[in-house]
Amino acid sequence: MPFPLTIPLLLRLLLLLLLLGLAASWLLGSVMMRATPSAVPTPAAPANAVRLESTDGLRLAGSYWSGRRRGGPAILLLHGNGASRAALAGNAAWFAQRGYAALAIDLRGHGESAPAAKAFGLMESRDAAAGLAWLRRLGHDKVAVIGVSLGGAAALLGDDGPVAADALVLQAVYPDIRRAVRNRIAGILGSVPAVLLEPLLSLQARPRIGVWPGRLSPIAALPRFSGPVLIIGGGADRHTPPAETRALHAAARGPKGLWIAPGYGHDAISRIESADYRTHVLAFLNETIGQP
C-alpha cells in the first residue's frame, strides 16, 4: 500500500532536506577555512629562514634574500591558498639574483606559520602588513608586493585599506568572494547548482569571521590604492576567468598594466616561473621601485 504524501509530510521532508543542506554547507565551509600547515624546505643560500610576528601577534615564518645593496628595493611575496612560501621561492631567488631583496612569508594557516583558520584575505592582510613593516625596518624604502590569489587579496583587504606598498603585482586574484565561490562550484557541479549553493557558503563569512561577503571584495578595495599595479591572470583560469582579471584591471586608479598568460589555469598561473612572466614583472619592478 503506497504511503500517502500529505502536505504536512512534504513540508517536513523539505525542512529535513534544508537542514541537511545547511549542515553539509557548514561542514564544507569548515573544510575550506581549516589550516593547511606543511613543512617548508630550508631556503638555499643566500636566503635565510626568518621569523616575524603578524600585527595581531601570530607567529609567521619567512625566507629572506638580502639583495645587492643595503636598503635597496625589495619585494614581498605572498602565496595562494593551500600553498606556502616554497611555491614562490624560485621567483624570489631569481629576483634576488638581479639585485632585489625578497621576503616570502607563509600566511597564517599555511606552511610553518601559526595554524590559524583561513579568512579569504581578511585576517591574512595582517600578515601582509607585518611583512611590509619588517622590510621597512630593515631600511628598504621601496617595496613592491607580489600577491598570488589569496596573497593578492591579503594585500588589498586590510582594515585600513590596501597595504602601503610602493607597487602591487596582483596575480590570479579573485574580484570578490561570491564570484570566487560560484566559479569553484560551477567548475565541479555546473552553473545552476553554483548559483543555488554559493550563498550557503559565502554568507558563512558573517558568523565565522564577523563580516558580510561584501567586505571580501578585492575589486572594491583596489581603487583605494593609488600606486602602480600590474594585474596578471591566466587565459585558461576557470577560478578567476580573464573577464574578471580585466575587471580588476579596470578598477585600478593609478598607473596600471595587464598581462593575461595564454593557456594558464589557476594553479599554473599561481606557480608560474616562465621567462615571459619574469620579463613582465621585472620590467614593472624596474620602472616602479627602481633597479637595484
Task: List its traits.
alpha/beta, eight-stranded mixed beta sheet, 292 residues, 41% helix, single chain
Q: What would your notes on this structure say?
A:
- With 292 residues, the protein is of the alpha/beta class.
- The chain has a domain at 45-175 and 217-288: 3-Layer(aba) Sandwich (Rossmann fold).
- The protein is 41% helix and 17% strand.
- It has 11 helices and 10 strands.
- It has an 8-stranded mixed beta sheet with strand order 2-3-5-4-7-8-9-10, sandwiched between helices. A two-stranded parallel sheet has the order 1-6.
- Helix 3 packs across helix 4 and helix 5 crosses helix 6.
- The longest helix is centred in the first third of the chain and has 27 residues, at 7-33.
Largest sheet: 8 strands, mixed
CATH class of the domain at 45-175 and 217-288: Alpha Beta
Q: Which percent range fits the helix content?
A: 40-55%
Distance between the termini: 84 Å
Tell me the structural class.
alpha/beta
Percentage of β-strand residues: 15-25%
